[in-house]
Known about the structure:
Layout: E1 2-6, H1 12-21, E2 25-29, H2 33-43, E3 46-47, H3 51-55, E4 60-63, H4 68-76, H5 81-84, E5 90-93, H6 99-112, E6 115-118, E7 121-122, H7 124-130, E8 133-137, H8 141-151, E9 155-160, H9 166-194, H10 199-206, H11 214-225, H12 234-251, H13 256-270, H14 282-286
Helix pairs in contact: 9-11, 9-12, 9-13, 12-13
Amino acid sequence: MKLAFLGLGVMGYPMAGHLAKAGHEVTVYNRTGAKAQQWAKEYGGAHRATAAEAAEGAEIVFTCVGNDDDVREVVAGPKGAFAGMRRGAILCDHTTASADVAREMAALGKQKGVDFLDAPVSGGQAGAVNGKLTVMVGGEPAPFKKAEPVMAHYGRAVTLLGPAGSGQLTKMVNQICIAGLVQALAEGLNFAVRAGLDPKQVVEVISKGAAQSWQMDNRAHTMVEGKFDFGFAVDWMRKDLGICIAEARRNKAGLPVTALVDQFYARIQERGGKRWDTSSLIDLLAKA
Length: 288
């Protein structure tokens, strides 16, 4: 298929690469043009100077940018994707953003004859590189059916969850659950250390039971070692949790633990850990 991928950050760069390696004709755009040139040289695709130019003639346009305002600019701005897309094409947004902006883009797309899917992902940079992301999708069944096998090149689970905005709402649930899990893991590991136990041995034992989680399997040892220079950055998590908390104010869902963990992450930022992995919550306890 003729595809476009807009936004080549730590997630988008390898995701677009999977599409090219699968044999699709991929044209890319990135606000930092050198990154797009580098991608095209590595994967053999094309690059363009604007999102609109990259989207011209594409059957599906994928976007993966930073936040709501970035989505509005890259998708609906004067030189955005919608300006270059043909009627009947699909825009699939992998940005973690608000449900409001997803519904807004879906409505604008409908006016232009373009289908819109909000499709945030989970699995981090490793999941993007290894093609094992979880993709949570909001939108209509027909465009989803067409886009699903394409997203499967980097998604091990690609699921339609409801109308526009449903993907973003599901990603909020994902981030809410992760925040609580990481804080609990940080407290448990810190407790083990202060109790004189070997934390790695403790994890080896409890990971075989009900306490097991992805965070425990992938982050427990590095947390104990105080290594945080990798993974999903605290800045990104705070952005995501801000979206969750704002949505919760609207739908009256109580998020007491999430709000507390968000403030813990604010303290990590104050310590200079803006780009540390989210598992750095243990730093507040280990150095208390």
